[in-house]
Specification:
heterodimer; A: 115 residues; 4-stranded antiparallel β-sheet; B: 116 residues; mainly beta; 6-stranded mixed β-sheet; 0% helix
Chain lengths: 115, 116
């Protein structure tokens, strides 16, 4: 089945130790998103790629970076995780076209713990 | 600017009874509206969307939602609730006239509990 895959599902890292979360998709969607979700709150958009074009949200900390080497893969890099970065990180994809009426498809998420 | 409100943090309903999860929105132009469901430790799952046309939208698992432009609402409904419907529900809006056309704004979520 076509889907959005996130690895790992659970990640533990130490305070200040860089960590990378990965996302892959078999949907061939041209838009990929990274969200941060804390404690069953609304997902917060960090950034998205429209094809290769990177779009950062204004309030996303510089500590968060992203890479999209090809259509299928997208990575979230946290350069120096703090305790406040502990959260669920959700990857999503969508098609894009006139009016952007397309829904987003979410992966299962990676739960990040910072010790 | 676009925003969405889910006025109820928690909704409890007995199995077999109808359920409603409320959502109101604010956009400067015309909205695209979405409902997603999230089960514990899982990603969000798309249920249904309103783009244009018929105000009553039918989606997955027997859910439906009614778009009401005058009340700026998009309430999620199901005629007969199941225990397995217990989950966290998010309403989301996109303002199609916005420059950030791809950005979804999510509501704060409503925890639905269906009691056996």
């Amino acid at each position: 089945d076509a889907m959005v895959i996130q690895n790992p599902r659970y990640q533990v890292t130490q305070f200040g130790k860089p960590v990378t979360l990965s996302c892959s998709q078999t949907l061939n969607h041209n838009v990929m998103y990274w969200y941060q979700q804390k404690s069953s709150q609304a997902p917060k958009l960090l950034f998205h790629y429209y094809d290769k074009d990177f779009n950062n949200e204004a309030d996303t900390p510089d500590n968060f970076q992203s890479r999209r080497p090809n259509t299928s893969f997208c990575f979230l890099d946290i350069r120096s995780p703090g305790l406040g970065d502990a959260a669920m990180y959700l990857c999503a994809t969508s098609r894009s076209g006139t009016g952007d009426a397309y829904e987003q498809y979410f992966g299962p998420g990676t739960r990040l713990t910072v010790t | 600017a676009q925003s969405v409100a889910q006025p109820e943090d928690q909704v409890n309903v007995a199995e077999g009874n109808p359920l409603t999860v409320k959502c109101t929105y604010s956009v400067s132009g015309n909205p695209y509206l979405f409902w997603y469901v999230q089960y514990p430790n899982r990603g969000l799952q798309f249920l249904l969307k309103y783009i244009t046309g018929d105000n009553l939208v039918k989606g997955s698992y027997g859910f439906e939602a009614e778009f009401n432009k005058s009340q700026t609402s998009f309430h999620l409904k199901k005629p007969s609730a199941l225990v397995s419907d217990s989950a966290l529900y998010f309403c989301a809006v996109r303002d199609i006239s916005s420059g950030s056309a791809r950005q979804l704004t999510f509501g704060s979520g409503t925890q639905l509990t269906v009691l056996p």
